[in-house]
Amino acid sequence: MARLRRDHFIDLRPLTTSPAFARLWIGSTLSGLGGQLTVVAVMLHVYALTQDTFAVAMIAVAGLLPMIVAGLYGGMLADAFDRRIVALIAASITFAATTTLALLAWAELESVWWLYVLSVIISAANSIVMATKSAITPRLLPRELLPAAAALQGITVGVMVMAGPALAGVLVALTGYAWTYTIDVVLMLSLFLGLWTLPSIRPEGQLVRPGLESLRDGWQFLRRAPNIRLQYILDIIAMTFGQPLALFPAIGAVLLGGGPITTGVLTASFAVGAFLSSLFSGPIGRVRHHGLGIERAILVYGASIGAFGVVLLAAALGVGAPPTVDATSANLTLIIVAGLFLVVAGGADNVSAIYRSTMMQAAVPDSIRGRLQGIFIVVVTGGPRVGALYAGALATLTTLWLPPLLGGFVVIALVALLVRRSPRFRAYDAEHPVP
User: Fold this and answer.
1) Are residues 151 and 234 in the same domain?
2) Residue 2 confidence (pLDDT) above 50
3) Each residue of 398-424: pLDDT tens digit?
4) Which position has the higher pLDDT, 64 or 85?
5) Which domain holds residue 292?
6) β-bridge mates for residue 326, sequence order
7) Cα(152)–Cα(201) distance, rounded to whole angstroms?
């Protein structure tokens, strides 16, 4: 019985099997937490300088195109040169930009434009680091441990999103922006340790220099890889129609009440789900049919988002509401229920991410893995932004509860239809990975 219970917890063998992976994971977790400090601090900093929420929102918009371009180009670099060197150079750019942020804050010379420019540089450089690290992982671990490595990444994301924003708010309030940026600079040193101690990791197979031909090879491979292509499409569907994050401020202000606190609770609920699903991810690594796992996880995700929409509908009908709902008076019962559904959604999304990441790393040849990871970054970063547009536009035209309620049903219907039409995807076997 004790063994059975242990088997349900996260598989830590990647950390003991590969010291290089362990150092890289620890460094990525600490630096990722520091990166969240800077992301939130920059938003607070811009608002403090402008008192304009639109200026804050434009930080993400300004960084989108450079992030996409850098992710694609970074993938090409990872397939042409020593991946350790590529990651170190990109991380050094991030380090230099963050250090500049700290120095400007200490000298009280910061401006909105400096914050924008340095944020864009950090975002673009981090895209290259992400694409390269993802291509490095399969070279550090045996294939059977890749799902466990992906689950450990879920722990990293959960810690970053749960602790990062709250810690950033506390640090900015108690110490100021300069100290917050400086702490990120210090935490980033751990990533350099993880990267510096890696062995040389050159791509295997035929090398193609970065450029249009390299990018075209990546797209042509994707056209011949129906399993990888479909998982991209399924993720875009889930994030486009099932990502209600952009609605959380308005939900906290006018529907559930509680203002920014409710917004924070709802946002953290996703991260809690990701953390818990990784913590109890032992059975995930024993599943061979990853395509089927992706389908079921996204269906659960869609159902959870739809249920979240039902909770919002109940709030709109006044179920359990106090006499007034505003920033200081909240519908606590429905906030708790809504948060629980988002925990399930975050967990399901993380399970899908574990299977998708494992499929990417196991089924894609090493010579082209970096470029596919670059395309994957475009999917991961672009989908939620399109989802914000869908949710915001539909909510503006109708009401707050409709985008998640309708979106959940759309996700379920489209995913079930596409996977049913792709029997090879449902039959995907991790023991015999085929892209």
Assistant:
1) no
2) no
3) 898 999 999 999 999 999 999 999 999
4) 85
5) 217-435
6) 329
7) 22
